[in-house]
Every structure is written in structure tokens, then in C-alpha cells.
Write a structure and sequence with these properties.
mainly alpha; 5 helices; flat
């Protein structure tokens, strides 16, 4: 079952890359699979993730949000974005 879901996911990622859209959001969303896997494994194993794993998940989610919603961050978080004049 997991193999078929992974295969379908790979097909859709390749389709997203080849349609001519921006590759940044696709890359950001697919890169979130590793930090997301940390959370899923912690829930299924019934253990708490370490502090370093929490920090990595938070930074990964923040980076994915910035890459997928850069207009929002340019408008509302101007102190974190470099704007061209």
C-alpha cells in the first residue's frame, strides 16, 4: 500500500515539475516529507521527539511556508524579507 501511494506521489511531483510552473513551491512541499515523517514516526512509536528534531521540524515548516507563500511574507513580515527598490 505504501509503495503505491509513493508511486502516485512521484508521478504527481513529476507532473508538477513538467507543467512549466514555478519549481519552488513543489520543492518546498516535497521537502516537508522528511520532517513530517519524524512527527508520524514519533506518534506511531509513542515517544517524544528530541529537541533537535522539534527545531528541525519547525524550521522546515517555516521554510516551506516562505517558499510557497512568499507574497504573504513579503507583505506582512517585511523585516524578514529583502525588497528591491
Amino acid at each position: 500500500m505504501a509503495g503505491s501511494v509513493a508511486c502516485i506521489g512521484i508521478v504527481f511531483v513529476n507532473l508538477a515539475y513538467t507543467t512549466g510552473g514555478p519549481a519552488g513551491p513543489v520543492t518546498a512541499i516535497t521537502a516537508m516529507s522528511s520532517p513530517g515523517l519524524v512527527v508520524v514516526m514519533a506518534v506511531t512509536d509513542g515517544r517524544m521527539i528530541s529537541a533537535m528534531e522539534v527545531i528541525a521540524v519547525l524550521f522546515g515548516m517555516y521554510g516551506a511556508l516562505v517558499m510557497t507563500n512568499h507574497q504573504f511574507f513579503e507583505r506582512n513580515c517585511f523585516c524578514f524579507c529583502v525588497k528591491k527598490k
